[in-house]
Model the fold of this input.
Amino acid sequence: MLVSTDGIVLKQRKIANNRRMIVIFSKQYGKISAGTSINEKSRTKAALALRPFTYAEYDLFRGRETYSINSASVRTSYFSIGEEIERFETASVLINYLDSILQEGEAMPGLFDLALECLETISGAKGSCETVLYAFIVKSLRMLGVMPELGACVGCGRGLGELGTEHPMFSVTSGGIICAKCAAGEKTEGNALIYRPAFDIIEVFRFFLSRPLGSFAKVSLKGRVAETVRNIISDYISRYLGSDVLRNSIRLEV
Ligand SMILES: [Zn+2]
Done:
């Protein structure tokens, strides 16, 4: 059966008989693996659509268990991502993040559109653009159904006014804001992963959730705040999504 879908290439590898296996985040079918004999190095229209950071339309032959790419054409090439190392690194982490969290064959059109918006924003960003990536990841948590609890203590349900600390603490282990008493209890059980940010982490999360991704092209968190936000998000996606992409990627300077 012939099908057609919009998509972004997540990765590719060589397989037998001069063919490649391309992993695509497709809008209609979610993450799929598709074989092709199109040579990426050639300058044909279809070859250009197989390059990284390209939004393309793919015509696929859908077999019982496999896909193969018949032809492809570029919709948007975010080629400017390759022109600056910061953009390139941030977009690479985005692609690796998507590859690590998506299940094969599970369509997530909303996340697909958000990923395109993220690539678009990164392609036009000046200087450090990691804040765009953090905002994308936090927005994705909601779509993936693993959003942390930000409205009350995860342990006892006490409201934000009764947390017992100047700034809210964040428990990665329990998945959200935690009060001083519950944090102390969690620590005695061992293996607790609790952050005590010197700023309001709820405000940062809400900031990421409430604004469109494009607005983060000119916003960057500074120094210690950026580092703490990165560590919290990194530990959180590792625990709840099994993704270690922020832990493994190169630390970007801010
Ligand atoms: Zn509590």
User: Anything to note?
Assistant: The chain has eight helices and eight strands. The mean pLDDT is 92. The CA atoms of residues 138 and 237 lie 10 Å apart. The first helix runs from residue 45 to 48.
